[in-house]
Design brief:
Elements (H helix, E strand, L loop, with lengths): L13 H7 L6 H19 L5 H18 L3
Helix pairs in contact: 2-3
Length: about 70
């Protein structure tokens, strides 16, 4: 399965990105993933974490998404 998720302040919500790729997940899981992604972005924008730390955290979120989605 190929999955592409864009993170940051401007991309569409994770729910929409999954829908566009024909993937589904539990609403509760999507809510948590979105909150995690938003928290990472907020910390980067506010200068609380480095870009490399954000990249590592986003990789962890991607792993959670891959484990929770289904076609």
């Amino acid at each position: 399965m190929k999955l592409a998720i864009n993170f940051g302040a401007l991309p569409p919500p994770i729910k929409e990105q999954l829908r566009q790729q024909g993937l589904k997940a539990k609403a509760k899981d999507i809510w948590h993933w979105q909150r995690d992604a938003d928290a990472i972005t907020r910390c980067v924008i506010r200068g609380l974490i480095s870009d490399s730390t954000a990249h590592a955290a986003r990789r962890r979120v991607i792993r959670k998404i891959v484990a929770g989605v289904k076609p």
